[in-house]
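Q: I'm writing up a methods section and want to include an example of the input and output format. Could you take the sequence below and give the corresponding predicted C-alpha cells, formatted cleanly so I can copy it straight into the document?
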Amino acid sequence: MRRPFLAGNWKMNTDRRSASDLVAAVRASADRRSDVDVAVFPPFVYLDEMARALAGSRVRLGAQNMCDADSGAHTGEISAAMLKDVGCELVVLGHSERRHVYGETDALVNAKVKAALAAGLEVILCAGETQEEREGGQTEAVVRRHLIEGLAGVSRKDAECVTIAYEPVWAIGTGLTATPEQAGQVHTYLRGVLAGLYDQELADMTRIQYGGSVKPDNVKELMSVEGIDGALVGGAALKGDSFTAIIEFDN
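A: Here is the clean output for your methods example:
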C-alpha cells in the first residue's frame, strides 16, 4: 500500500512573514494527519528559516529546482549540496515551468536528477503534456519521453528515491483539472513505463502524484482513483486553510 504524499510547491510566492505563517499551519495539519506524508517547497531564500521552523515535525522540506553541477562558476545557481546543507530532503525537477518557460531540456533534467540522487536528495520528477500535445494524441508519447529520458542512467536503487508527478501543463494555474478518469489513465500508463524501465516491484512501490489545479473541493475525488498516490499542489498550497484542507482530505 503506497502512502499518500501531498506536497506544496510555493513557486515564486510568499514573503518571510507569510512563509512562516504558512509553514506553521502546515506543521499543525500534518500533526493531525499522521497517515499521509507532507512536504513543502518554499523559494530558495526562505529554505534555511523554514528548515528551522519545521525542525522536529513530520513535514519535509524541499527545493523547487537545483543546478546539475556540484560547484563552480554558475552564477545564480544552487547546488544539491547547498540544499542538503540548509536542511532540504527533496527537490522538484522537470517542472513544466522550468521546461516550457526556461527551456530546460530532457537532458538537463536528467543531469539534475542524477546530481540530486548522488547527493542524497529525493526527487519529484515531473512529466506532463501541453494542451496542443493532448489534442494531438501525444499525451502518452510525451510523458513516456519525460520519464525515460529523465531517468536515463538512474540505477534501480536510486530510482526508489524518485516520486513521479503527472502534471498536465494545460491544468496548471488555469483552473482546469484533468478528470479523475484522464488522470488515472496517465498514472496507470506511467506505472507501466516504470515497470518496463526497471521491474514491476519498483513500479508498484513508486508514488505517482497528480499536479494541476488541485483544490480542497477536488482532492478527495482525485485521491479516490487507483494509482493516484498524492498531489503536487501549486496555488492552493499558498493558503493555510486550503492546503490544510487538502492534507486532511476525507479518505
